[in-house]
């Protein structure tokens, strides 16, 4: 902008702020005793306190020659009150001297800094040479220690891998034995269930919940309980094998990483300033591809070893538990098998004794039926023999009712005839009552005979089921070696 042809007074582009020069005021000047806080800079002309009237940066260097030229009085603005105020805002002589002193001090300060820099640079070069040598030596030492550490952990990992493989193989063998033992229990279970099904074919009173049935049910429960425990341990062994393989995988992966790291660090440890293959790799020091520190690095391998050792300990404990389980299940199955056989033997003996007794009672019942039939025939004859005397007595009494008038006398004969008729009737009634009793007894004997015969057939059926069918199937049972998984 061109301000030569204007007489506008100074304006502010923003609120007044504290700066290098004192603030402009239309009052009396108070800047003569003011000391600027810093030296004048090149940006002073751009500050907002610059007057807006009659200001332009000088384009010619001042000289001491006589003034030549003409002054265009038309371009000089009149010195009004506002223009005079603007002339008083320029620097003071004190500011000029202070600016020069500041430049002297600045020059001297930079010279001293340059001397110190030269001396410090010489010392720095020597120190950095020594530092570089020490750093490379310490780096080589650290690489050697690193190679030793990697070798140690690599050997530990390899030893643990061998132990883990041996433990995994041992657990797999025990698991196969347990599976064979589980398969061997299917036979006894089927025999016990078949015995229960056969005994359901008993009839009548022999369908009793006896010791044999209770022991058979217990045998089924024992076999199923053993099978359930075996299945649980098989699942545990499968899970443990998976854990062992996972731990082994981590060990092998860590061992492989250690092998590669050992190859790389051994190569790095052998490098020197005269080695082949060394080159610049700009920015490699800023590329931080590390994922661990020495503590976490060692902790990682230690955790892998501890995990593998823990899994091996659990696997060994599981193998011992499986061995104990197979021994326990074998003893339980054999014990219950013998208990059921003893119960069968006792029950067969009881059934046979009962059958013999029933046959004896049937024989006696047949004899008693024959005797009772003879008694009934005797009673009937006796009743028939009383018929004639009763008719004689009735005829006499009837004839005596025809006596005339006073002859109808209640004499001793009349009384005796009446008494005879009553006695014969009573006798006949008693004999008929006895005949009914004899007939009822005969009916009871016949019913008893039928019951005994039915019971004998029932006992014979039960004896055939227990002795022939059930005990015939229970003659064979897996041996102890087969029950613990050996072929």
Describe the structure.
By secondary structure, the chain is mostly helical. 71% of the residues lie in helices and 0% in strands. The chain is built from 8 helices and no strands. It has helices at residues 81-87, 93-184, 186-199, 211-270, 294-385, 387-400, 412-473, 480-483. The longest helix is centred in the N-terminal third of the chain and has 92 residues, at 93-184. The chain is rod-shaped and about 205 Å long. The two termini are 114 Å apart.
Order of helices and strands: HHHHHHHH
Residue runs with pLDDT of under 50 for 5 or more positions:
1-61, 63-69
Give the percentage of residues in beta strands.
Answer: under 5%
So what's the overall shape? Answer: rod-shaped
Q: Please count the beta strands (DSSP E, at least 2 residues each).
A: 0
Radius of gyration: 67 Å
Query: Which percent range fits the helix content?
Result: over 70%
Distance between the termini: 114 Å
Notable traits:
487 residues; mainly alpha; 8 helices; 0% strand; disordered N terminus
Can you summarize this structure?
This protein has about 475 residues and is mainly α. It has eight helices and no strands. The radius of gyration is 67 Å and the shape is rod-shaped.
């Amino acid at each position: 902008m061109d301000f030569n042809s204007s007489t506008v007074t100074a304006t502010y582009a923003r609120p007044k702020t504290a700066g290098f020069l004192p603030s402009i005021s239309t009052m009396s000047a108070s800047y003569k005793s003011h000391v600027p806080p810093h030296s004048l800079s090149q940006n002073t002309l751009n500050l907002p306190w610059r007057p807006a009237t009659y200001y332009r940066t000088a384009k010619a260097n001042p000289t001491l020659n006589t003034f030549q030229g003409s002054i265009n009085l038309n371009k000089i603005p009149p010195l009004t009150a506002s223009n005079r105020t603007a002339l008083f805002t320029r620097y003071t002589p004190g500011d000029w001297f202070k600016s020069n002193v500041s430049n002297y001090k600045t020059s001297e300060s930079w010279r001293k800094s340059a001397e110190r820099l030269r001396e410090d640079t010489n010392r720095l070069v020597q120190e950095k040479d020594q530092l570089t040598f020490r750093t490379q030596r310490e780096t080589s030492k650290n690489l050697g220690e690193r190679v030793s550490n990697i070798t140690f952990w690599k050997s530990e990992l390899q030893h643990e891998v061998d132990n883990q493989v041996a433990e995994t193989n041992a657990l797999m063998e025990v698991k196969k034995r347990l599976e064979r033992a589980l398969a061997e229990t299917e036979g006894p279970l089927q025999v016990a269930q078949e015995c229960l099904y056969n005994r359901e074919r008993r009839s009548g009173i022999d369908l009793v919940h006896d010791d044999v049935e209770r022991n058979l049910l217990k045998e089924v429960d024992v076999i199923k309980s053993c099978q359930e425990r075996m299945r649980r341990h098989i699942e545990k062994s499968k899970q443990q094998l998976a854990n062992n393989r996972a731990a082994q995988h981590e060990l092998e992966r860590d061992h492989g990483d250690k092998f590669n790291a050992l190859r790389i660090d051994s190569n790095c440890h052998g490098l020197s300033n005269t080695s082949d293959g060394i080159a610049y790799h700009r920015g490699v020091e800023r590329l931080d591809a590390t994922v661990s520190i020495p503590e976490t690095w060692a902790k990682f391998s230690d955790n892998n070893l501890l995990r593998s050792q823990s899994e091996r300990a659990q696997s060994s404990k599981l193998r011992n538990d499986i061995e104990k389980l197979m021994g326990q299940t074998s003893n339980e199955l054999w014990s219950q098998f013998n208990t059921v056989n003893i119960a069968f033997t006792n029950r067969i003996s009881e059934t046979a004794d009962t059958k013999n007794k029933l046959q004896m009672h049937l024989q006696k019942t047949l004899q008693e039926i024959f005797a009772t039939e003879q008694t009934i025939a005797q009673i009937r004859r006796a009743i028939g023999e009383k018929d004639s005397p009763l008719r004689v007595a009735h005829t006499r009494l009837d004839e005596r009712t025809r006596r005339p008038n006073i002859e109808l006398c209640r004499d001793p004969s009349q009384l005796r005839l009446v008494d005879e008729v009553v006695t014969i009737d009573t006798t006949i009634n008693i004999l008929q009552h006895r005949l009914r009793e004899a007939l009822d007894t005969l009916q009871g004997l016949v019913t008893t005979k039928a019951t005994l015969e039915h019971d004998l057939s029932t006992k014979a059926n039960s004896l055939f089921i227990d002795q022939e069918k059930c005990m015939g199937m229970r003659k064979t049972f897996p041996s102890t070696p087969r029950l613990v998984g050996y072929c």
